[in-house]
Amino acid sequence: MTVRAKICGLSTQETVDAAVAGGAAYVGFVFYPPSPRSLSPAEAAALARRVPVPVIRVGLVVDESDERIDAILKTCPLDMLQLHGHEGPERVAAIRKRAGLPVMKAIPVAGPGDASAARNYETVADWLLFDARPPLPVAGAPAPLPGGNARSFDWTLLGGLTWKLPWMLSGGLTPENVAQAVRVSGAGTVDVSSGVEDRPGLKNPDRIRRFLAAVAAL
Predict the structure, then answer these.
(1) In 10 A of CB 83, how many CB atoms?
(2) Annotated catalytic sites, by residue?
């Protein structure tokens, strides 16, 4: 089975180039201000223009307004939107229609039965993404990010399940564990962010290359 990879949360020319040269099928840009990986539409646009066809440019938003999504798409050339918040099926369908782009809906998973929430999106989205559920809020601490937390979940929760849509596996993946994650979950596409960073928001080009090499070897 050929496995494809998405490198998410890119923020520099060097890391975008490493992802493209290493064979990433998807590259992701974050438009969620609380994230250390967040970019302005103009910053993302400069990076997105470095990405050649057929690599898919994905924009990640979280419970975003129509106006903000319009502004992002007006400035930054994207091929897909990733909805990583609490967007319900009706909202996903509305964004898909308004943007005129494929949309991917993130599904948080922590235990048995969580993945079944994806059934609600099979007729309104184009892709599904299964990610680890964020940690619980802690009093006095910043709110947890919806993704990119270096957390994984029990991949066996996805084993044997089938979906009407293509899907990606995310959450705590690294160059060292991606082979096992694919074997256990059956994922045909994997998505990494924190697993190729030196610290949140700082991607390491060498780890990007190592992750992509590990995927290519599957």
Answers:
(1) 24
(2) 8, 131
Q: Averaged over 168-190, what is the pLDDT?
A: 97
Q: Select from 50, 54, 82, 56 the least CA-distant residue to 69.
A: 82
Which helix (H) or strand (E) segment holds residue 168: the answer is strand 167-169
SS3 state of residue 31:
coil
Give 137's pLDDT tier (boundaries 50, 70, 90). Answer: low
The answer to whether the beta carbons of residues 80 and 102 sit under 8 Å apart is yes
d(CA 10, CA 27): 7
The residue type of 90 is E
Q: For the residues 94-111, what does the mean pLDDT come to?
A: 97
pTM attached to this predicted model: 0.94
Please enumerate in sequence order all residues whose Cβ is within 8 A of that of 216, keeping only pairs 6 or more positions apart, or say none.
23
Contacts of 110 (CB under 8 A, 6+ apart): 132, 133, 153
Measured CA to CA, the distance from residue 46 to residue 42 in angstroms comes to 6
CATH of the domain at 180: 3.20.20.70
Neighbours of 3 (CB within 10 A): 18
The domain total for the chain is 1
In tens, the pLDDT along 26-42 reads 999 999 999 999 999 99
Q: Residue 59: beta bridge partners?
A: 29, 81
Domain that holds residue 124: 4-216
pLDDT tens-digit map of 111-130? 999 999 999 999 999 999 99
Strand, helix or coil for residue 206: helix
